[in-house]
Task: structure prediction
Amino acid sequence: MNYIIKDTAIVNEGKIVHGDVIIKNGKIDKVTAIGDTKYAAQEIDGSGKYLLPGAIDDQVHFREPGLTHKATIYTEAKAAVAGGVTSFMEMPNTVPPAFTQQLLEDKYAIAANTSLANYSFYMGTSNDNFEEVLKTNDKKNDVCGIKIFMGSSTGNLLVDSPLALDKIFASSELLIATHCEDEKIIKENLERIKKEKDVLEPSDHPLIRNEEGCFESSFKAIQFAKKHGSRLHILHISTEKELQLFTSMIPLEDKRITAEVCVHHLHFTSDDYAALGNKIKCNPAIKAPHNRTALWQALLDDRLDVIATDHAPHTIAEKNEPYEKAHAGLPLVQHPLLLMLHYVKEGKISIEKVVEKMSHAVAKCFQIKDRGFIREGYYADMVLVDMDKPYTITKENILYKCGWSPLEGFTAPATVTHTFINGNLVYGNGVFNESNRGMRLKFER
Result:
C-alpha cells in the first residue's frame, strides 16, 4: 500500500520543515510542500505531529536462540517498533554464541521469519575462533560488524588474549564493536570490597566495575585500532574519564574511532540504586552523577557519536536474586525515543539532535544503505510522534517478554503514534499490522 503523510513537521538533517511525505513501493517517493501534490494513496494526518526517521539501535540483546525464556527476536522487535525503533543490530551472546558463520546465519533466518523491524547481527569472537571471524570479511555488505567482549558480561565471550585481539584488529575489514571493561581491575575491586563487607549490594556495582576499569580497557582497544588502522566503535561509554579518548574535531564520516552512549547512562546515576537496586544493575555500571553530566556534554559536543539502548532483558526472578547472582542488564528498546523526547521537552537537547544521534549518525557510522534519513529514494522507515500526548510506562503497556522495565511509572511527554518500516504501516495508534517482516540491513563498505 502507498501512503501520504500530510501536513507534518519533518525532522531531518538538522532542520524542521512542514510538508507532506509520499511513500510508494516501500520507499520515500517525494518530500513536498504541504498540499503540493495529489496522490492516490492512503492518507495519514500528520498535523500537530513530528515525523522522524526511525531510530536505529546499534546494540541490543534479543536472547534468541537459547535464552528464549527472557526474550525472543519476535517479542523484542515488536516492542522496538512500538517505541519508534525501526532497525536493530543484535549481539552474539546467545546460546550457543554466534561463533561460526552458520550460527550467525541461523539468527538471520529466525529474524527473517519473525522480526517486525529491520535487523543485523554481529559476529561473535572468542580467544580461538579467529578463522571463523575472518570469514565475515566476505560478508562486509551483509553484517553490521564484529563484537569483542574485552570485559566479561553476560555469556562466556571474554576475549582476553592479546594475541587474539591483535589478530582480529589487524585482519577485520568490518567495524569492530567493543565492550570495554578491564577484567583484572574488576576482579581486584571485587576481592577488595568483599574483604570490607559481608554482603555486597547493588550500590557496590559501580565500585567494582569502576571508572578505571572502563578507561583502561577503552584505551587498550584504541591502541590496537590505531596500530592497525581498524574501524573501532566503543559501546556504552559510561565514564567521564573515557571521554578524553574521543574527539569532535573530525567529521563523523572521517572518524575511524567512534563512541556510543546508552540511554540508561544518560538517565540514571548511582543515586538510583537505593530505589531500583538490581533493576539497574548492568555492565558497564551506572556510575556517580558527575559521569552522567560529562556524558551529556560529550553527546552535545559530538565526542559521543550515537545513542543506543544495550537492551538486555532478564526475568524479574533473575533480577531479584542477591546482588552477586542477579543478572546484569536492562530492558529498554521500547522506550529510548520517548526518554530522549523527555529531555527535548526539558530543553536539554533539541529534537534535531536526537534524530541525528539515533538515526543519521548510526546510519553514517555503520554505512547503512538507504536508511536513517527522510530522503527521496530511501526506505520509508519513519515514525510519527505526538509531542503533546503524554505516555506513562506501565506493566500493562510493556511489550518485552520479561514484562518489566526500570522506567515503570515514568511519564514521557510524547507518544509514538505511527511506525513505518519499509513503507509498511507496522504500528498505528496502538495497533500492529504483522503482515510484513523487516529486512536484513545492507552496508555500503
Observations:
- The chain has one domain: 54-366.
- The first helix runs from residue 73 to 82.
